[in-house]
Design the sequence.
């Protein structure tokens, strides 16, 4: 198929985006273990950490474990960074959900450092996070993440991380 | 605070910190705890992997190990209360832990003031020469009753 005859039907586009996101998230065992899921609006992702008793770190309050919050924000940052990097290839159809799920040449960015700012204790309920890639070069990236629970304007945690980007995969 | 109080504190930290629900979920093990320090282990598990192409455990699992170990160091410090919360935690990932190997972290309180505990931690796999990660954290301090 050549040129710009007519745009693909919206359902085809949505299906490809959703399948690619599911494949990307499904690749990473830790994301499933922590229980993080993603919602997508266009290219915008929201990470969701559904509350479970196993996430508790302070049974007296009770409050989420700081390690669970940190892991959640790091997952949100890494998926956003990988997703935004793959977006052009997803949209062009050069990268299929099957490749994302199975191709071991697809490497994740590596975390160099990650700093979490715990603003208030995590309540025993669902948490949400959105990440923003502030800078993404060929080798390094800087990502900021905001986490909240009931109120979008009352963050319970935020984080900044630096990442080393993977070598571009060799495709044939 | 008396030595007996500190001993009781240390015994309590040893008993409960790896028993917290999220620590149990990740399978954290207690290696040792003393006045102002703690050592914990994160045994390798396939369901904690972050990159399937390498089999390396996710940074988020190492974060939990570091946070818990640092928290244990604060709670066992004679000048801090037994309750603490993380204010800020920075983790530097020097290299991926070897797949299959247990990660061990040791945390120490560098300084404890009336309000803040400053903590440093280092994590290794089986190679003792090159750390896989270091952490620097600030934790809240709850003063024992009737003190300060």
Sequence:
């Amino acid at each position: 198929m050549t040129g710009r005859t007519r745009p693909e039907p919206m359902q085809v586009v949505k299906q490809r985006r959703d399948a690619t996101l599911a494949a990307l998230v499904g690749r990473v065992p830790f994301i499933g273990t922590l229980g993080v899921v993603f919602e997508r609006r266009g290219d915008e992702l929201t990470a969701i950490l559904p509350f479970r008793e196993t996430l508790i770190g302070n049974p007296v309050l009770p409050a989420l474990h700081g390690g669970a919050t940190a892991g959640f924000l790091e997952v949100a940052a890494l998926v956003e960074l990988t997703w935004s990097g793959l977006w052009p290839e997803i949209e062009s159809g050069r990268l299929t959900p099957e490749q994302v799920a199975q191709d071991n040449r697809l490497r994740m960015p590596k975390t160099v450092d990650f700093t979490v700012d715990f603003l208030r204790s995590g309540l025993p309920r669902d948490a949400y996070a959105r990440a923003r890639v502030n800078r993404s070069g060929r080798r390094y990236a800087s990502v900021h993440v905001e986490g909240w629970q009931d109120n979008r304007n009352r963050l319970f945690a935020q984080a900044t991380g630096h990442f080393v980007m993977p070598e571009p995969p060799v495709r044939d | 605070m008396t030595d007996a109080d500190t001993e009781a504190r240390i015994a309590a930290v040893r008993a409960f910190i790896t028993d917290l629900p999220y620590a149990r979920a990740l399978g954290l093990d207690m290696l040792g705890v003393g006045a102002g320090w703690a050592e914990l282990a994160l045994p390798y598990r396939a369901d904690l992997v972050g990159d399937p192409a390498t089999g390396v455990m996710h940074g988020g699992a190492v974060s939990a190990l570091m946070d818990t170990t640092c928290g244990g160091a604060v709670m066992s410090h004679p000048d801090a209360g037994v309750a603490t919360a993380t204010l800020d935690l920075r983790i530097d990932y020097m290299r991926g832990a070897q797949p299959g190997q247990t990660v061990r972290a040791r945390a120490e309180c560098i300084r404890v003031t009336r309000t803040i505990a400053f903590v440093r931690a280092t994590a290794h796999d089986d190679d003792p020469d090159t750390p896989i990660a270091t952490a620097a954290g600030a934790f809240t301090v709850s003063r024992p009753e009737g003190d300060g």
Summary: Residues 3-140 of chain B form a domain with the Thiol Ester Dehydrase; Chain A fold (CATH 3.10.129.10). Chain B has a mean pLDDT of 92. Helices of chain B lie at 3-16, 21-26, 59-75. The radius of gyration of chain B is 15 Å.
